[in-house]
Design a protein that fits this description.
DNA_Partitioning_ATPase; 7 strands; binds magnesium ion; alpha/beta; binds adenosine-5'-triphosphate; Rossmann fold; single chain; about 220 residues; Plasmid segregation oscillating ATPase ParF
Length: about 220
């Protein structure tokens, strides 16, 4: 399956999720290829850190910020893998458009904040564009870096705001809370599922595993 983690907005957790999911799937025995379509190449850097530390399993990773190159390479190589996980973003990114022409599933992370909803309009436009030239494919958004305070209404309000786009991108009935373990893991080229987590950090692993089971069962 080709999974694309996408949002034109920066800082929503695209790289964090791409790295965490790719490694977790590899640990489930899947042949995984992580494709970094973002100019910054953060996912690729994370995987480089992993390979320099010689952490197993190694993850195949390529950096294709150019849309036509990404499209050609993914078409050529996808059948060698169980999972191709593409990270892309940026307003005028050709890589993002290319990924959306190929993907089986688009996952759109968003974070609490009043400006997030605006960025979603760009993503919706890109999805509509892709869907007009190919067979339909599922796209779901997910609240990331959700407030851990159970009394806070921020999460509910954000999910409600995103429901405006539910026709194109329904919000997943699952979320990932703000947990340092996600950030620490991805930054060092690891997934939370392979780290020795302190008891209070364990929910990070459960949240990631549940997300993976939702996405790959689709
Ligand atoms: N669930 C989470 N809990 C805690 N920190 C998180 C979580 N998700 C992401 N972060 C942190 O938020 C910041 C942004 O995440 P990330 O770099 O993955 O976003 P991005 O969408 O790839 O951004 P960019 O567009 O700049 O590449 C990072 O510092 C990351 O460590
Ligand atoms: Mg990134």
């Amino acid at each position: 399956m080709i999974l694309t983690i996408v949002n034109t907005k920066g800082g929503v957790g695209k790289s964090t999720l791409a790295v965490n999911i790719a490694i977790a799937r590899a640990l489930q025995g899947k042949k995984v290829w992580l494709v970094d379509g973002d100019k910054q190449g953060s996912s690729q850097t994370a995987i480089l850190i992993r390979s320099e530390a010689d952490v197993q399993p190694g993850i195949a990773c390529s950096h294709y910020p150019d849309g036509p190159v990404l499209r050609t390479q993914v078409l050529q190589q996808k059948d060698n893998y169980d999972d191709v996980i593409i990270e892309c973003g940026g307003r005028d990114s050709t890589a993002m458009r290319a990924a959306l022409t190929l993907t089986d599933y688009a996952l759109v992370p968003f974070v609490p904040g009043s400006f997030e909803a605006w960025a979603m309009e760009d993503v919706v436009k890109m999805l509509q564009e892709a869907r007009s030239i190919r067979e339909p494919f599922p796209a779901f958004s997910i609240l990331n870096r959700a407030d851990v305070n159970p009394r806070s209404k921020d999460n509910q309000e954000m999910v409600a705001a995103m429901s405006e786009y539910a026709d194109e991108i329904p919000v997943l009935d699952h979320l990932l809370h703000m947990r340092k373990a996600f950030a620490n893991a991805a930054g060092s080229g690891r997934s939370v599922v392979e780290l020795k987590l302190k008891p209070h950090e364990k929910p990070a692993k459960e949240e990631l595993e549940k997300l993976i089971s939702i996405v790959f069962k689709y």
